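Hey, I was hoping to borrow your eyes for a little while. There's a protein on my desk that I can't quite get my head around. The fold is given in discrete form, as structure tokens running alongside the sequence. I'd be grateful if you could look everything over and explain what you see. Here's the protein in full, and shout if anything looks odd to you:
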Amino acid sequence: MNPISEAKLIDGVIKKRRAAIHFMYKDYFPLILALVQKNSGTRQDAEDLFQDGLVALYLRCRDKELVLHCSLRSYFYSICRNLWLQRLERKCRFILQPDLLVNECEETYHSKTDLIQEKKLERYRLFWRHFKQLPDDCQKVFQMYFDKIPFKTIAKNLGMQDADYVKVRKYLCKKLLIKRIKKDPEYLNCINHE
């Protein structure tokens, strides 16, 4: 796979391009996997952490908060490392050992900001896990709604009766999603740390 410039990677993350995400996974994931496995985690933990790191990177890029003083690879590693440290700290597990795989600078984050970011990521992950389990028509209605497509157009694209039917369907899907999220044991964890 050909290397992609950091500017293109950042643009790809903002625009959710498959090629950029795939490149990051192939190039950056082994570092994250090594970090997690070296510090009492599993491959599944590493995959979750990688996804959360991508979300954090996306949010910083989207909100134009990204200021790089090192390579994007090191910056992403630092995000994941800090997220992992927070998780270990919360679970009272082992202290993270220094990692010599990345010899570039590490970004520092303020602890209050980190905690807020971690909570956002937990909620985001909880939402998307249950979103993916919704019926296909619910997912399609929500995706179009998130893209600010008018209800009339959604009805036409999905072969539904009219805009009013789409509104009712969205409401019912939203109720189903909320019900599933509230039944999840992680939901209480997300709201108890407010």
